[in-house]
Amino acid sequence: xxxxxxxxxxxxxxxxxxxxxxxxxxxxxxxxxxxxxxxxxxxxxxxxxxxxxxxxxxxxxxxxxxxxxxxxxxxxxxxxxxxxxxxxxxxxxxxxxxxxxxxxxxxxxxxxxxxxxxxxxxxxxxxxxxxxxxxxxxxxxxxxxxxxxxxxxxxxxxxxxxxxxxxxxxxxxxxxxxxxxxxxxxxxxxxxxxxxxxxxxxxxxxxxxxxxxxxxxxxxxxxxxxxxxxxxxxxxxxxxxxxxxxxxxxxxxxxxxxxxxxxxxxxxxxxxxxxxxxxxxxxxxxxxxxxxxxxxxxxxxxxxxxxxxxxxxxxx
Length: 316
Known about the structure:
Order of helices and strands: HEEEEEEHHEEEHHHH
Helix content: 25-40%
Strand order of the largest sheet: 1-2-3-4-5-6-9
Shape: globular
Structural class: alpha+beta
């Protein structure tokens, strides 16, 4: 692959992640606006996202070689201009106790102790990574928490990865037969089936079930979804099209699931169950999540990386 083609692919992927971020932000602000009068917390003002730019240091902790553009164009820093950065978009509202939609584009060299773990980095530690990550923690225990992220990584190899999963916080809603679970799995299956030549649904669903598993507790974090990594079939256009489909599928299904549930009243007992279940979310992200580990070990923004943590949690 020549350099010009590589750079074009990077730009194409990054542009998509930024566009998807903007669509998700609009959709979730629309959910805040749609909470009906008389619903729990409807007397509060609708939330709005706040965007914050950040700059990455390299694996040594050194500052960027040169400054990034101002926040209006911070996502667009070219490879070679410095270690990169991104924009955090965070919202606290009346539907979402905490939701973040972040885009980052970083580049540089992997730290020596990390190079053997990344395909294509053992002999040449230079890398580029761009991606989007969404984490949503609603107020209402009847509304499931959710996670979605997709990314494009380039070393001497290149690949896509990511997925989406759903985390109901009430025991009676964590059944695979629950209507929300059925709808979410249906959306993820449809995304895979539309690109079956590169995205086998059964494999990606099983991968998600096994990935989002708390080994120390012997239980899944939620009800699953899909997960994939190192997707490089040799057809960039096909791999990218599927990655786009994952983002669009999540954009369609998750706001719908929130709207189905956000006006339901909840009890203190259900709130307590929600807070305890959130503890499982924290445990997974700190102990097992590859994205968190990757970001912390490549000079990522700590506030952005840990924004996945729920705002209130209990360990009884």
